[in-house]
Amino acid sequence: MLKVEHLQVAYGKVQTLWDISFEVPQREIVALIGANGAGKTTTLKTLSALLKPMAGTMTLDGESLAGCSSSEVVQRGVVHVPEGRQLFPEMSVMDNLLMGAYSTRQMGRRERLDKVFSIFPLLKERVKQIAGTLSGGEQQMAAIGRGLMAEPRLLMLDEPTLGLAPIVVEDMFRVVRDINASGMTVLLVEQNTQHALSLANRGYVLEAGRVVMSGSGSELLANEEVRKAYLGL
Question: Are 180 and 194 in contact (CB under 8 A)?
Answer without folding.
Answer: no
